[in-house]
Amino acid sequence: MNRARLLVFIAALPAATPAFAQSPPRLLLDVGAVVVGAAGAGSATANYTAPDGSPVPLFSLSKSVAPAIGVNTHLQIRLTPRVALEVTGEWTRPNLRTKLSGDADGADNVTATQPVHRFVLGGGAVVRLKPFGKWHTFTRASVGWLRELSDDLTLYQDGWVVQAGGGANYQWQEKRGHLRPYAIRTDLWLDIRQGGLKFSTKPRLFAPAFSAALILKL
Amino acid sequence: MSARIRLALVLVALVAAAPSVFAYLSLGTTVNGRSVQTRWTSMPIRYFITNRGVAGVSAAQMQAAAVASFSTWSQVPTASLSASFAGFTNAEPVRDDGATVIGFQPHEELERTLGVTAFTLDRTTGTLVEADIYLNSAFDWSVAASGEANKFDVQSTLTHEIGHLLGLGHSLLGETVLRPEGGRRVTSKRSVMFPIAYLVGTTLDRTLQDDDIAGVSDTYPTGKFLNSTGSVAGRVTLDGAGVFGAHVIAVNTKTGQTVGAFTLNSQGQFTMDGLEPGIYVLRVEPIDDADVGSFFNDDAKVDVNFRAAFYSKLVAVPVGGAGASAEIKVVRK
Ligand SMILES: [Zn+2]
Description:
The structure holds two protein chains of two kinds.
Chain A: H1 3-12, E1 27-36, E2 39-49, E3 55-65, E4 68-78, E5 83-92, E6 95-101, E7 110-115, E8 117-132, E9 135-149, E10 156-171, E11 180-195, E12 205-217
Antiparallel strand pairs in A: 1-4, 1-12, 2-3, 3-6, 4-5, 5-8, 6-7, 8-9, 9-10, 10-11, 11-12
Chain B: E1 4-7, H1 11-17, E2 28-31, E3 34-37, E4 45-50, H2 59-74, E5 83-89, E6 100-105, E7 115-122, E8 128-136, E9 141-142, E10 152-153, H3 154-165, E11 174-178, E12 184-189, H4 210-219, H5 223-228, E13 230-238, E14 241-242, E15 247-252, E16 258-262, E17 269-275, E18 278-285, E19 309-310, E20 315-317, E21 326-330
Parallel strand pairs in B: 4-5, 4-6, 6-8, 9-10, 13-21
Antiparallel strand pairs in B: 1-7, 2-3, 7-8, 11-12, 13-14, 13-17, 15-16, 15-18, 18-19, 18-20
């Protein structure tokens, strides 16, 4: 990079103070790590039937989805200085967990697990909010298609996910040229999932999620 | 058919002779050293009803109950079978006359036997050619719509016996307690094909359970059954060695569908078919809620000396096949 031109650019930055006065680049790509929090998946009993027709528990199941880590990526296409469309991709590796207890024949309690793969492909909108110094806050919402696969990849079932939340980009001086690191993005959102591997007795699962990513200017 | 063989409810002998790898217990036989499933190959199954009722149940009421029981099985959407009433007869059930006959018969000597199903099968193919059923008229019977106190329900008992007639053995999805006067009392169960009936007065066994549905569908599968269900396979081991005759149940974590199977060889291997795709819990227990003889013949080396246990992993059942094999480890009591 040409050092002289860069210095000139930095000197010019403080002048660009009014919010949104400076439009972000048209295309931004980020890649980062994601953590999706635990979600309760309901409880159930494995039942037999008594002679009077009432259920008799054989054992109890308490189900949850353990916290998962993975990677995610967003491609942002700016429409206006404030609004951008965003395409989201995400892969995480959650563990389905079922605590088995209260067995009628005295089997020891066990927490049975199955690690699974979860893929999300979604799209949504990002709205820029007021910046605080180098922190540029935003809010976003997206809807995605969800595919979950068993550990051995033999079983897959699909569903939907809605993500709503916000975050902030820590944006340093814009560098010219393509594929330049542009900012660090931190995101916090609520993950609302429906479908996927048939496991939960709840219609929808709710989990907090967080990601940190490096934004590249395309 | 020179090779026809008479088998009067030697269900257990059939089972042990042909370790079946199906869910529940399917009856099997050995043809030229090869295990084959015992089933009907031509439909509809034509049956006669004996022209003789008992106190409180006429021959016509018996016939109506048989029609209802057969249709309970034939209406399973994933099973392809049919039956038709061929008429009343003076012939007795359990007679090798080429006709499938259902009726009452007095058997005072069988103090705890409500009903018996006997087969005639073609030993060269394993195909069923005749199956007779009698209900023991030494007991009091009822056809009342919602059952009758102190009487056994004809339709419930026929539904169990017709399950045998179709080629199903016994299931172990039930819990019992020993009775002071001998025998066992069912405290709860989840299969019409459990070898012990509910006490008098209930009509619950008119309705098939998941395990019965998986069993009949596996014996007479429709294309939909083969294309929409999966299986789970694995082993039950104790100190690394296979356990024979262990009862494994699979419970769907979302729907609660519950199906059972047995380990049927010395490696402790089992397979369960007819499961909805999804995530399952596996649990293993010894045969301790019914006589081992209800499932296996007497010289089978069934191991009942181990503790009930859960498999430490959840099992994924894909469509049209099996996922990763499960090894369920058990310990001595
Ligand atoms: Zn039986």
